[in-house]
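Need a sequence for this fold. Nothing fancy.
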């Protein structure tokens, strides 16, 4: 492959390169006016260094190929990560390449590929910060380098037509009692009868489990917990027909997203029920619930692969 003829290749002179060219031209003009052989020699060396910079930077960006972009759980207005998987045709070559990603309605911090060692296939982490929830497009990815002297910058662009799903911002708030199922309903496993501790009283706890001594000490109801006890998990319910598009609806989604994150940290299962014009949708699991919340609209359900 002739990289110089590749339409995706872009070449630009950096600020340092323009300053270097100006100094070189002034030195060349002085050599012509004075006829000083030493100035001619220095001018030739500077010109050779500039051309060598272009040739080395060409090699630094050559034999790189983008394989795929892998997404994880990316939240709106929160720093997340995308993995850019690439193929390195010459792992031993020093490169000094920056990896830039163009995203709609979001900021992306560039990654870096040093080269010089490593396997033929690798991963560069790109930190992204999307502006809003929902589907967003990735427009293109570029390998950029001004290695080794910083005079010329070459960029090799890979156009993309890929969409990633941005999850609702996980708003951190105190526990809300109006979230359906936010109060876990404990169930005791068979053969578990040994008291393990105590916790504050929750709705639907049987009165037979009240820890009277702890209740008297704390001045509020407490109940006994048992070994092997499991929580029934977090149950969330969202009626889209009761909401109108706007900030209040987005805030409600962020509250639910934060509740799911808290349940994940507590290793509790999550169940989500969404009611809309198309009927009821039930999902279980952190990622599946997040992906549903990322696509719903006030007044009805979004149609797409997540809702089939």
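Here you go.
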């Amino acid at each position: 492959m002739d990289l110089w003829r590749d339409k995706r290749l872009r070449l630009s002179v950096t600020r340092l390169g323009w300053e270097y060219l100006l100094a070189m031209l002034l030195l060349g003009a002085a050599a012509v006016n004075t006829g000083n052989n030493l100035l001619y020699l220095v001018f030739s060396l500077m010109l050779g260094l500039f051309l060598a910079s272009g040739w080395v930077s060409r090699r630094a960006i050559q034999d790189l190929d983008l394989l795929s972009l892998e997404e994880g759980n990316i939240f709106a207005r929160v720093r997340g990560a995308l993995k850019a998987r690439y193929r390195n045709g010459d792992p031993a070559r020093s490169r000094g390449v920056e990896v830039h990603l163009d995203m709609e309605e979001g900021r992306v911090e560039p990654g870096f590929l040093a080269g010089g060692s490593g396997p033929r296939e690798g991963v560069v982490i790109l930190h992204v910060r999307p502006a809003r929830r929902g589907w967003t497009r990735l427009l293109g990815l570029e390998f950029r380098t001004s290695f080794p002297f910083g005079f010329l910058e070459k960029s090799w662009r890979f156009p993309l037509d890929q969409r990633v799903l941005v999850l609702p911002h996980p708003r951190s708030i105190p526990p809300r009692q109006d979230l359906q199922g936010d109060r876990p309903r404990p169930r005791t496993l068979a053969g578990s009868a040994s008291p393990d501790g105590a916790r504050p009283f929750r709705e639907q706890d049987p009165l037979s489990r009240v820890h009277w001594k702890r209740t008297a000490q704390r001045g509020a109801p407490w109940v006994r917990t048992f070994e092997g006890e499991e929580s029934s998990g977090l149950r969330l319910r969202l009626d889209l027909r009761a909401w109108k598009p706007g900030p209040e609806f987005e805030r409600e989604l962020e509250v639910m997203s934060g509740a799911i994150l808290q349940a994940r940290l507590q290793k509790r299962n999550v169940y989500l029920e969404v009611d809309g014009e198309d009927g009821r949708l039930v999902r279980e699991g952190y990622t599946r619930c997040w992906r549903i919340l990322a696509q719903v609209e006030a007044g009805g359900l979004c149609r797409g692969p997540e809702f089939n």
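For context: The chain has three domains: 1-167, 168-185+232-308, 188-230.
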